[in-house]
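Hello Y.,

Per our agreement to keep a running log of every chain we model this quarter, I'm adding this entry. I've kept the format consistent with earlier entries: sequence first, then predicted structure.
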Amino acid sequence: MKKFFSEFKAFIQRGNVIDMAVGVIIGGAFSAIVTALTNNILMPIINYILLAITGGQGLDKIYTYLSKVYEVNDAGEITQVVDLTKSIYIDWGAFITAIINFLLIALVLFLIIRLINSLHSGAEKQKGKYAPLSKEEVKALKKDGKTNEEILAAAAARKAEIEEAEKKAAEEAAANAPETEQKLLSDIRDLLKSQQSANKE
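Predicted structure for the entry above:
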């Protein structure tokens, strides 16, 4: 049992499990919001438009009857009102409502993801805006009252210093390359000589 609970604890503490649980909870709440938007706001508008155009029934009353059963009144007489609980019919309105729900969820998710991506790309651009200055250096400069142009100038100056230092390092490495190669060849010769002497002995 102890091993079982330890494995269960490790499973629960995994990041992807927690993320999945949060996603399911938020997805359920989000779906309820979209359903309420569809049923309480959009569907009445669509039904009103359909009534105005056709003069008939709204989207929630669009049925194709396969078998009709009419209601019977208290006197035992058959009325002209269809008993939906006993009739067999295709509910096109519910189907169209489900499609509208799906399209709305897809549209809202697209807008949310688009907004998050734009914010993320904006943050990345802002992050690299003052490179190679660190975040702390930028904060210190802003605290000192430096303007955005002055911070950008400081970043450009730092970048130029880094490029100059890299250029000098590359030139020094190129200048020292022959000496390094000569030293390496000398070390190899000494090693071979010592190996030959050891073999003769």
